[in-house]
Structure formats: C-alpha cells, structure tokens
Write a structure and sequence with these properties.
Number of helices: 10
Distance between the termini: 45 Å
Helix content: 25-40%
Largest sheet: 8 strands, parallel, barrel
Bound molecules: phosphoenolpyruvate, manganese (II) ion
Strand content: 5-15%
Mean pLDDT: 95
Strand order of the largest sheet: 3-4-5-6-7-8-11-12
Order of helices and strands: HEEEHEHEHEHEHEEEHEHHEH
Length: 297
C-alpha cells in the first residue's frame, strides 16, 4: 500500500476502479460548489441547525428565526423520519406532508435554505420541491435505488454515514450519486456503533478520525453531526469544536427551544442560547486555525 493512502481498507486499485469519481485527482483536489448561495468545500464552514423533527409549524418557524439570527446557513428538520420504534403517539409521530409544508413556510418567511431527509422514492417530488439539500439518513446509506433516484433530480445530496459502515462503503454510496452526473455530494459523519461507549445511553461514538481519513482519498466535503453521535447535550459543544479542529467542512447541530421536551432524542439538542454561543466559538476557532469562516463579517 502506498504511503499516501494508508486507509486500512482502501487500496490504490479501489480509487481507480471502485470510486473513480469520488477519489481525489491530486493532493490538493477539493470539490467546491454553491448551494442556495452557500459555498461548500471552500473558505466557509456551513452550519445546519434545527430540531430533530419538524414537530409543528410554530416550532419550525421559531427555530428558523432564531438559528438564522445566530448565523446558521441551513435549517434542518425531519418531516419523514426513520423512527427507531414503530409505536406512535401525539408527540412521537412524523408530520410528513404537513412537515414539508411548514419547512416551506419557514424557508419563505426567513429566507433560509432547507435540508431534510428523504425516506421513500414516492415522496421525491414533494420533498425535493422544498429541500435545497436532500438528506439520505444513515439507515438508508445503502439504499442504492433511493440514492440513484435522488441523484437524478440533480439536487445536492448529503449522505449520512451508516453507523456500521467503513469509509470504503460510504464512498461507494457517494459514487452512486456522482455516476449520475450529480456532483453536489456532501458526506456526513454522525457516529459509529461500537460495543462500549462512555455512557449507557450513548449508542454511538463520533469518529473524528474519519475526517482526515476521508480527505486523504476524496475531494468531497465532509460535515460532522455531533448531536447524533454523542446523543448527549453536554458533549455537543466540545465535539463540535473538535470537529472544526479536525477539518470538518460543515457542522450539523440539533437545536430546539425546549430541548428536554423535544419529541425525538430529547437528550441531544442544544437550546438557542447554547447554539448562539457555540456558533461564535466555532467561528473564532475556524478563523484561528484554518482561516475559514462561519459568520459573515
Ligand atoms: C437526522 O439527522 O435526523 C437523522 C435521523 O440522522 P441519522 O440518519 O444520522 O440517524
Ligand atoms: Mn435523529
């Protein structure tokens, strides 16, 4: 194995034959593209913020207003959700078509672009009408027919890493988008599953090493989601800052006005004031260490 590519499971041959489009052409090769006025892979570090789930119109409008005023670039929130358990109640239930409509209202009212998850191809028109970036959730990272259908829309696509997948398999999923002639692909690390984490409720471990590892082999931008990875609010700030230090090209954060009463994953969102403080800290850090900015001057 060549010293330039010490990745454990990626060979020089893979770069040529398995993911020729995702592989870097030379050492300095970095994808740069603009999504709804926001540059990826350049000197800005886009921030995606919002609730886990688009719970109500009131919630998503309030979050949009607050995160936008703090400097977030994209509003996140799931209307179609891969909920871990099938039992639904008033709080723990997808808002689906309504949720997409409320995201559209928030986008229009606060002039903020949207990233939201697509779960099934039959909703592709509905979701891609509103989404500026289509999110492929970690559970669907290997749903190749869904990824191919999304790629054909030519919408930017963010692929969350499956919590059990290697970098090699993740790049294979990205290649499914690129091979359709869609070059706007973003990777997102959201924690991997390991037998022993640091808290009984912490299901995942943030794999920050995958940021420099990915950058050795691919030109695609890589976002980190410390909210899903830690599953624990008190650790989100330090892991978000560590992600910037590791070279992340974007950060996804769960933000909720009343985190403890979030309908889904109430242990992980931060509130508005924590978010407002964190975005300033991330901006200072990224300016200091890699001359990249988050907040406009
Ligand atoms: C999410 O971002 O809302 C989500 C469900 O994430 P993941 O697919 O990483 O679990
Ligand atoms: Mn979630």
């Amino acid at each position: 194995m060549d010293n330039k590519f010490p990745g454990k499971d990626i060979s020089e041959e893979d770069l040529k034959s398995k993911f020729p489009l995702a592989a870097k052409k030379d050492q300095n090769h970095r994808s740069k593209f603009i999504v709804s006025g926001v540059e990826f892979g350049g000197n800005t570090i886009p921030i995606f913020a919002g609730p886990n789930m688009v719970e109500s119109k009131e919630l998503i409008l309030d979050v949009a207003k607050n995160i936008k005023s703090s400097g977030a670039h994209f509003l996140r929130g799931g209307a179609f959700k891969p909920l871990t358990f099938p039992y639904r109640n008033v709080k723990y239930n997808e808002t689906r078509e309504d949720g997409i409509k409320w995201l559209a209202e928030a986008k229009e009212k606060y002039n903020i672009p949207i990233i939201t998850e697509i779960m099934e191809e039959k909703y592709l028109d509905l979701v891609s009408n509103v989404a500026d970036i289509l999110q492929i959730g970690s559970r669907n990272m290997q749903n190749y027919p869904l990824i191919t259908a999304c790629a054909k829309t030519k919408k930017p696509i963010m692929i969350k890493r499956h919590y059990g997948s290697s970098l090699r398999d993740w790049l294979g999923a990205a290649e499914y988008v690129l091979v359709e002639g869609n070059e706007k692909v973003i990777l997102c690390e959201r924690g991997v599953s390991v037998p022993h984490t640091h808290r009984s409720t912490s299901r995942f471990l943030l794999d920050l090493q995958v940021v420099p590892a990915a950058k050795e082999v691919t030109h695609l931008p890589i976002v980190v989601d410390p909210s899903h990875a830690t599953f624990w609010r008190p650790w989100v700030r330090s892991m978000a800052l560590a992600s910037i230090a590791a070279g992340a090209d974007g950060i996804m954060l769960e933000v909720h006005p009343d985190p403890e009463n979030s309908a889904v994953d109430p242990l992980q969102p931060i509130d508005y004031s924590e978010f407002n403080k964190l975005i300033v800290e991330m901006n200072i850090l990224s300016n200091q260490i890699n001359n990249r900015k988050i907040l406009s001057d």
